[in-house]
Structures are given as C-alpha cells and as structure tokens.
Write a structure and sequence with these properties.
Number of helices: 6
Bound molecules: S-adenosylmethionine
Radius of gyration: 15 Å
Number of domains: 1
Shape: globular
Helix content: 25-40%
CATH superfamily: Vaccinia Virus protein VP39
Strand content: 25-35%
Order of helices and strands: HEHEHEHEHEHEE
Distance between the termini: 35 Å
Length: about 190
C-alpha cells in the first residue's frame, strides 16, 4: 500500500491541533511513521500510545524510531483501546490516528477488520478530549477494505452532530475504490 499524500494531509490537520505536552494514540502502528510524527508534536512532555496486533509492527516501530522508548507500544487490538489506556487519560486524548489495511512490507493477509475497527472507533470517540481530532485513512481498493470504508462512512453519518463534526478528503480521484481520509473533530 502506497503512502499517499492523504497521509500528509492527515499530519497537517493533526499538527494544527496537537501541541507539546499533549497525549496521542496511533491505533495502527504499522512501521511506526505516524507514531514518530505524533511524538515529534507532543515532545518529551507528551505521551504517545501505539497499538498493533502484529509483533512485526511493534518491532518495525522500534527499529524505525530511535526514541521508541518514549512511545508506549501496546501489542493488542485497538478494539481494546479503552482497557489499555490508563483511566486518568480517558477523555483527555488530543489526537488519534487510524491508518487501516495491512502492514506495508509485511503480511498482506493481516488487515484491519470492519467489526474491530468500528469497535475501536467507538472507544476512540469516548477517549478523545473535548477539542480532540481523529484521522482515519481508509482503503476501499482491497478486499474487505470496501466494506470497512462503507461502514466507517455510515458510522460517521450517525455520529451525534452536536458533539462531532467530520469531513472526508479523497485522493486525486473520487471513485469507489479511491483511498480516503476521514477527519473527525469532537466539538463539545
Ligand atoms: C497501514 S498499516 C499502519 C501504518 C502506520 N500507521 C505507519 O505509520 O506506518 C496498518 C496496521 O494495522 C494493523 N492492524 C490490523 N488490525 C489491527 C487491530 N485490530 N488493532 C491494531 N492494529 C491492527 C496491522 O497489523 C498493520 O500494521
């Protein structure tokens, strides 16, 4: 899966919200690029928690980040986010990133699954701070990714719009299989 410019757009939006000392979650560590970016924004006084179900992703994150010791790497499904984030941080997470699909360079048969993704999104909305931001990169072009993306769009449409706003940004083409970025903000 190509790291396309939508990722840069996600980073740009996050950089406008996340500041030194804040708390962030990378819900899909993969090779650790997003976690590293989050850490660069929150600095030494901030916290970054990262989740992945694959030990290969935890290892890749550690080898790609000289400062991986400053990240809290959790080998668990993001569906168990609430259980793994210390309770004192619930409702105080300033940014959460999801980059769905498979581990680039890894086993392409291990992909995010609609049910656990939706479970994680629900948990994430509760963990977010009042002015928090969440980004979700979705890839409908691979098997399973189409249903997952459609379900995320449906989930966004049914969010309480007095507490959340969202937008969808497409890659260069607006087609059924085009990757897309969901940006969600908690407004209460
Ligand atoms: C596209 S990669 C993430 C890219 C990553 N954010 C980066 O910066 O390199 C997707 C990752 O999601 C992970 N994943 C799949 N299901 C998961 C789950 N239920 N919980 C957490 N991670 C999961 C995969 O193992 C894979 O490493």
């Amino acid at each position: 899966m190509q790291r396309i410019s939508l990722i840069n757009i996600a980073h740009q939006h996050i950089s406008e919200s996340l500041k030194s000392g804040d708390i962030a979650i990378d819900a899909t560590l993969g090779n650790g690029h997003d976690a590293l970016y989050l850490k660069s924004l929150v600095g030494a006084t901030g916290l970054v928690f990262g989740f992945d179900i694959q030990l290969a992703a935890i290892a890749a994150t550690q080898s790609n980040n000289e400062d991986a010791t400053e990240l809290t790497l959790i080998h668990a499904s993001h569906a168990l986010m609430a259980e793994n984030i210390p309770v004192q941080h619930h409702g105080h997470i300033n940014a959460i990133m999801f980059n769905l699909g498979y581990l680039p360079g890894g086993d392409k048969s291990i992909i995010t699954q609609t049910d656990t993704t939706l479970c994680a999104l629900n948990a994430a909305t509760a963990l977010l701070a009042a002015d928090g931001i969440m980004t979700i990169m979705a890839y409908p072009g691979h098997a399973g990714g189409d249903l997952e993306t459609a379900q995320i769009e449906h989930w966004c449409e049914h969010l309480n719009n007095s507490h959340f706003s969202y937008q969808i940004i497409y890659s260069t083409v607006t087609s059924a299989t085009a990757p897309r970025l969901f940006i969600l903000r908690k407004t209460l």
